[in-house]
Amino acid sequence: MSRSPARRAGGPSANRRQFLKLSSAWGLGFSSPWVVPCSVLGNAAPSNRIHVAVIGNGNQSTIDLPAFLEQPDVQVLAVCDVNTASHGYKTPDQFLGRKPVQAQVNAYYAKRAGTGEYKGCDAYNDFREVLARRDIDVVVLVVPDHWHAPMTVLAAEAGKDIYCEKPLSLTVEQGRAMVNAVRKHQRIFQTGSQFRSSPANRHGCELVLNGRIGKLQRILTFIAEQNAVDPGPGWKPEPVPEGFDYDLWLGPAPEAPYHSGRCLYRFRFILDYSGGQTTNFGCHSNDIAQWGTGNSHTVPIEYEDMGSVWPAPGGLYNTATKVAFRARYADGLELICQTAPPFFGCRFEGTEGWVQFDFKGLHTQPESLKNSVIGPNEIRLPVSNPARQQDSMKFYIPDHVRNFLDAVKARKDPIEPVEIGHRTATLCHLGNIAMLLKRKIRFDPEKEQIVGDDEANRMLRRPMRPPWRI
Length: 470
Hints:
Elements: H1 12-22, H2 38-41, E1 50-55, H3 61-69, E2 74-80, H4 98-113, E3 122-124, H5 127-131, E4 138-141, H6 148-157, E5 161-164, H7 172-184, E6 189-191, H8 199-209, E7 216-223, H9 246-250, H10 276-280, H11 282-292, E8 302-305, E9 324-328, E10 334-339, E11 345-350, E12 353-358, E13 361-365, H12 393-410, H13 418-437, E14 441-444, E15 449-450, H14 454-458
Parallel strand pairs: 1-2, 1-4, 2-3, 4-5, 5-6, 7-10
Antiparallel strand pairs: 7-11, 8-9, 8-14, 9-10, 11-12, 12-13, 14-15
């Protein structure tokens, strides 16, 4: 079997030199996609296949990658990660990085073809080499939050469609830059908030929107506890492991000494790279709140701390260990986001009952509400997979991916486009700011500015370590 164009003369190695200088040399390199037999990739004609690269080969890729591999019209041409291979992800037995994941992709296609061998998936350390490939249609961004905006902007400039994991951004300003880049370059973008692809969640939100619980009084959203142990005060720098490009992992984040607790899965508990469980689980729970109130294109205007707890100075981790903030929409509706059982989900409380969606599915009071039928002339929400009736978490991500791929082909927005992901992330970022400052803040959703508080307003953005910029 012939090798991928990625290894031919004049391929990405040549492109990379020019790309690194200009970040826009998208016209160099490949004349056409590499075509493989239908026995490998199913019956989809080569011209109808979507060529995919997965950037970020850590814990979440173990769920996202299979969802793309299993699509009959997808060909995964490349994987990319700054880590060659190691243990030390979410669980000790996970052995991940670009080499193991490349082997996984090649083994998958070899098994499908029944040939015993397949070598069509290339592995990269630097994502810019992936973006320089003209035969890549879609990039899947499964990287730490501080990389979402730079990679999205460059991918959009490169003409790639984008599936990006939540939370959409590291800051409000970066989220707006992502929206602008996607729209300027007319790309298709799906935020990886897969609970919008849950039939039960959709039905629960439709019940609320159509007044089945009476007048909506309050929303409760639930956040998981921090699930990593802080190395604590006195932690010491460690040698950078062989095969790990730590400088590129940091990228636009401030320079910092390496520690194993800083990278891989645990990045989310350091504010330089993420927003803790506020933005991790919060971008699921609060996304449901946004959907079920018809507020997907805006955010609450007021935020205040309700007793959040933060680590003592000196440790490695500095995100909230207990999330607790109140937000208020322009119409007075109250949202309370907190670390509390069931640790994920959203509860809508009305004058005539309540609706809650969480890991165990949909719950209602009265219970009969669950069976209430939404009529054709009532408010209906977008459907990710019209053929899916059964509600199971095992289908959420595959259906979310399928919805994205269908949108790529139709050149239309998927179920959670970039603007919606940006608004949900903004809600979570503002909650973090209010909790950090321990005071009430007011936000103008149109101007995307905090009103009358210069210190808080500066927290909507972060400087980037040169040479990275948006």
